[in-house]
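Replying to the earlier thread about multi-chain prediction with a worked example.

Input:
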Amino acid sequence: EAGVAQSPRYKIIEKRQSVAFWCNPISGHATLYWYQQILGQGPKLLIQFQNNGVVDDSQLPKDRFSAERLKGVDSTLKIQPAKLEDSAVYLCASSLGAVAAEKLFFGSGTQLSVL
Amino acid sequence: GENVEQHPSTLSVQEGDSAVIKCTYSDSASNYFPWYKQELGKRPQLIIDIRSNVGEKKDQRIAVTLNKTAKHFSLHITETQPEDSAVYFCAAMDSNYQLIWGAGTKLIIKP
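Result:
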């Protein structure tokens, strides 16, 4: 079974620039999550999709972050404009379940450095 | 809302010894508690999970125990090996079915 695919693996940008991350979940997984993991901390949920609908985006900084999952499969997360504090690893995860965050499968993540 | 505290932040044990990592949670309605292992530079991976209707679950060298009354759960690793070196995260599912994560424990296995 193929895992969760993410790209790019690394990204370096200057503050105020924009950046986009891509995620393709495990086939058949209805639920997709974007997490932000700052060095030395646990993952923080940014947004959760069930198919192509948003379940929870309460912790997404909507003035600069946006995400979509138009066809209910792959997803993109965008930051515009980036700030220094956005430097982190952005992890995508998927799960088979429709609602509960059980048995998450994570991608390798995108390490973002904002200079 | 749910709050999860994890201790210790760093744990160093001799190879072959046991390691125990503890987490406490605040929401008595939480009913699902997973543990994830994250090796350096890699993705978090689920290693074991437990539901609130079970007090203990074991899978080879790892086990998780849950004390609902005290609202804490622990990860036990026996006969530790070098490949157990990683950061371990506990989590608890809140009433919105979201995972609330602990801050992580860096486990170091000394040869």
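DSSP finds no helices and eleven strands in chain A.

Feel free to reuse this layout for your own posts.
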